[in-house]
Write a structure and sequence with these properties.
heterodimer; A: 352 residues; mainly alpha; 15 helices; B: 310 residues; 12 helices; 70% helix
């Protein structure tokens, strides 16, 4: 995503046209990246297995079944034609049939994705609510013991395995202290009670007016979401600190201090205001990373999301399901990545 | 420095190393390493990191002599024993000593880290240097590929590649390396662009050096220090991804004492025999933190420009 140097002409064109150009570039690059993703999944699904037909029909299939499948999968066509057909299939939502659930992969993905989104969204909320103030405080008190603690917390976020933290969290807060509910999304006797509207259980429970189920679901979610939040917190706090330090060393901050503006106002009004655009980018990126990180957390907490679906598929060599999940997570990742990039360009005049 | 040094009359090694006017190329580079080592040793976190990584390497080399028991020797009478004087970190569900397994696991962790770096760094360096050196369409195409890989989720891609290649240590290493190279390509390209048009490159070109020679002997060596920093900083992520693959049963296969796989086996006993899953986790955290500290320290010493914050 190397920024092309803006042509002299672009600087004089009206802002609307410039914004349009940005959006056009955004769409183009996003589509290129998406094609790249599909090329990789195509490569993994068709080229890497020694014999993709055997992967589908098994190695004891009779010759005629094998040949029928060979033709049906389009393997007699040139590789490029095969890829074009593949792209067409994916764009129309045809990810093939899951070998283990027996349903079309797209239906499975629709069923499991809301749970993952719910967890990741809750996690990023925790990460932002705690991480941004921590970063600001660390910058305001740079070099103090508070800053050191926040720095160590941040480094831990890069070195603790998420699944390990999940296991330890379960044994301490669920088995030991009994503060939270155990694995799963909701207690077993509440399962399937509220009608599915959005697929996000907490929202569905509220829509159905069932606060009991809502709080039960929350007590299941708080631990995995906090652990995910911790990992995004580490990154958000580190970046916030670095952005704030840049601002606090600027002359306008000194001016404000000399004028006698209170320290609180200097930090939160003067210095914090300009960094919010950069923060949006950071938060967007960590949300994308969180969606990915939730894979490991979902396994530990038996959370019925994409991560669980993907790993179950991995262990049963269910390639359509594996590649379908990969495409879904990859696409969300790409869109969030590109959107935060373009938001940054639109809102920050310096980057134009 | 006094002029007397020109005669080679150095009083001590220290004088020789810190001479302002080194007489030979060897003296100059020795002096440079000396300065780097001094700056490094004054950075406490970096030293902690270096010590941790040093311990990892020593443990891996001397594992059979350091481990009190065999990593695979089962003793069913001693299964799931809590930490004690005999088994410092307790035993697992087959009565194997966890400390011995962690010590032997250091070999696997080091192997993964070294192999991933040895595969992905040269690929990334070469692609980046070629893109930056030739520019134009070569640059555009190579960087488009790099950007595609960069904007994909690493863990998910590694999972998908392992799924296709089959579970196992070698395939896990290949899968992680495939997802790790783009960062190095970007760094190498950025570094190459900064001196692409400088005079020493033009001078070598005029002398008739081939492109291969210029890239190999003049461009790549200058990209090394920033790549080393980045590789060290990435080590923690590589260790975590490898442990994640092991945890899922896609990495090193039993009975290999891979740390992630050990945590996975301890998962069933987490409520009553907490040490089985917890202890290997501490090993992962310690080693990852060590690489983080070391990388941060190397960046401060080798490349003060990149320091974020203070």
């Amino acid at each position: 995503m190397s920024a092309p140097s803006p042509t002299p002409l672009a600087q004089n064109t009206p802002r609307l046209v410039a914004a349009f150009g940005t959006i056009w570039r955004f769409v183009l690059v996003t589509m290129m990246t998406f094609l790249g993703l599909l090329a990789i999944t195509f490569f993994i699904g068709r080229v890497v297995p020694i014999d993709p037909v055997v992967a589908v029909v098994g190695d004891r299939a009779p010759q005629d079944v094998y040949e029928a499948m060979f033709i049906e999968m389009g393997l007699d066509k040139p590789l490029f034609t095969q890829f074009a057909i593949y792209v067409g299939d994916v764009l129309t939502g045809d990810f093939g049939q899951s070998l283990s659930t027996g349903r079309p992969v797209i239906d499975d993905l629709k069923r499991f994705f809301p749970a993952t989104m719910e967890l990741a969204t809750f996690g990023i909320l925790i990460g932002v609510i705690l991480g941004v103030p921590m970063g600001v405080i660390a910058a305001a008190r740079a070099g103090s013991w508070l800053d050191q603690i926040i720095r160590v917390l941040g480094l831990l976020g890069y070195s603790v395995p998420a699944f390990w933290m999940g296991l330890v969290g379960l044994s301490v807060f669920y088995a030991g202290l009994g503060w939270v509910s155990g694995p799963g999304r909701v207690d077993i006797f509440y399962d399937g009670v509220v009608p599915t509207v959005t697929g996000v259980l907490t929202v569905d429970a509220l829509l159905a007016g069932d606060t009991q189920i809502f709080w039960n679901a929350m007590s299941h979610m708080i631990l995995p979401a906090s652990i995910l939040g911790f990992f995004s917190l580490a990154y958000i706090a580190r970046m916030t600190r670095s952005f704030m330090l840049d601002q606090l060393n600027q002359e306008y901050v000194i001016t404000a201090r000399v004028k006698g503006v209170s320290e609180w106002a200097v930090i939160w009004k003067h210095a914090f205001y300009p960094i919010r655009v950069q923060l949006i980018t950071v938060i967007g990126l960590s949300y994308a990373v969180l969606l990915e990180g939730s894979v490991m957390i979902e396994i530990v907490f038996s959370w019925p999301g994409i991560g669980n679906y993907l790993t179950t598929a991995l262990l049963t060599a269910d390639m359509p399901a594996v590649l379908g999940s990969t495409i879904l997570i990859g696409s969300v990742f790409i869109v969030i990545n590109r959107t935060s990039d373009v938001l940054y360009r639109v809102f920050d005049p310096r980057s134009r | 420095m006094p002029a007397g040094h020109q005669d080679g009359a150095y009083q001590t090694w220290h004088d020789w190393l810190t001479d302002d006017a080194p007489a030979s190329k060897m003296q100059a580079s020795a002096g440079q390493y000396w300065a780097i080592a001094r700056a490094f040793s004054r950075n406490p976190l970096a030293m902690v990191g270096a010590i941790i990584v040093g311990i990892l390497i020593i443990t891996a080399i001397f594992a059979p002599w350091l481990a009190p028991y065999s990593p695979t020797g089962q003793n069913l009478q001693m299964r799931l024993m809590p930490p004690s004087a005999d088994n410092w970190l307790g035993t697992d569900e087959l009565g194997r000593d966890i400390l011995s397994r962690i010590i032997h696991g250091a070999r696997i962790t080091l192997l993964i880290v070294v192999m991933v770096a040895a595969i992905s760094a040269p690929i990334g360096l070469l692609i980046g240097a070629v893109a930056g050196y030739f520019g134009g369409w070569t640059d555009r195409i190579l960087m488009a590929i790099t950007d595609v890989f960069l904007s994909l989720p690493k863990l998910i891609m590694a999972l998908a590649f392992v799924a296709a290649l089959g579970a196992g240590l070698e395939n896990a290493i290949i899968a992680i390396a495939i997802t790790a190279w783009p960062a190095y390509a970007r760094i190498a390209r950025a570094e190459t662009l900064t001196f692409r048009n400088s005079e020493f490159i033009a001078a070598v070109e005029l002398q008739g050096a081939s492109n291969l020679r210029i890239i190999g002997l003049h461009v790549l060596p200058l990209c090394m220090s920033s790549t080393i920093i980045r590789v060290t900083l990435d080590m923690a992520g590589i260790i975590l991804t490898a442990a994640g693959l092991g945890f899922l049963g896609l990495g090193a296969q039993p009975p290999l004492p891979e740390w992630g796989a050990m945590i996975s086996r301890g998962r069933s006993f987490i409520l009553d025999q907490w040490w089985v899953a917890t202890m290997p986790g501490f090993a992962i955290i310690l080693v990852s933190l060590g690489f983080c500290f070391l990388g941060d320290g190397l960046r401060d010493v080798l490349d003060p420009r990149q320091r974020d914050g203070r």
